[in-house]
Amino acid sequence: MKILMVCLGNICRSPLAEGIMQHLADKERLDWEVDSAGTGNWHIGSPPDRRSIRAAADEGVDISRQICRLFRVSDFDKFDLILVMDKSNLSDILAKARNNVDRNKVKLLLGDKIVPDPYYDDTQFAPVFKLIEAGCKEIIKEYKTK
Ligand code: 4NP
Fold first, then answer.
1. Whose CA is nearest to atom 12 of ligand 1?
2. Residue 108 near residue 90, CB atoms below 8 Å
3. CATH code of the domain covering residue 72
4. For a pocket test of ligand 1, which of 7, 11, 42, 128 has the largest count of ligand atoms closer than 8 A to its C-beta?
5. Where does the secretion signal sit in this chain (predicted)?
6. What's the domain count of the chain?
7. In terms of pTM, does the model score above 0.90?
8. Atom of ligand 1 nearest to the CA of 43
């Protein structure tokens, strides 16, 4: 199973989601490959936000070597599941979908809830880690036999 995590900047939420999902999948010995990308181009080539790196490190997850990249249409071909953090990510990615096969791969990580953007609030990185972790555990439950 190949999963792509998507947010706006690809420096706060989706790097956490990539790191957490890969960490949990590895722990469960699932042969899953996880990546992340952003819909906005401001931070291409940069590592994750240091507040995300720290929030992850505090929970034993190393995201420090990730590099920010932009979502590309070919990601629809490479990945089985594209998990987005909020409704604007959802509409941005759905706008790039070429057909229903593409569209059916795209879901909110938290089902019907959003992962709020912590970029402007230092206090939100630890809670956002927990939200993403809970979402990843649900996804593993749902997809682990596939
Ligand atoms: P992210 O957070 O989408 O969780 O990576 C953001 C990071 C940077 C910006 C916006 C959101 N920005 O506007 O630069």
1. 9
2. yes
3. 3.40.50.2300
4. 11
5. none
6. 1
7. yes
8. 14
User: Average pLDDT for residues 108-118, to the nearest whole number?
Assistant: 98
Range of the domain at 83: 2-143
Q: CA dihedral in degrees (22, 62, 89, 109; nearest 10)?
A: 40
How far apart, in whole angstroms, are the C-alpha atoms of residue 146 and residue 139?
A: 11
CA 103 remoteness from chain centre: 17
The pLDDT, as a whole number, for residue 145 is: 79
With a CB cutoff of 8 Å and minimum separation 6, the contacts of 64 are: 47, 48, 53, 57
* 57 CA to centre of ligand 1 in angstroms: 20
Tens of pLDDT along 19-74? 999 999 999 999 999 999 999 999 999 999 999 999 999 999 999 999 999 999 99
Q: How far is the CA of 146 from the centre of ligand 1 (A)?
A: 32
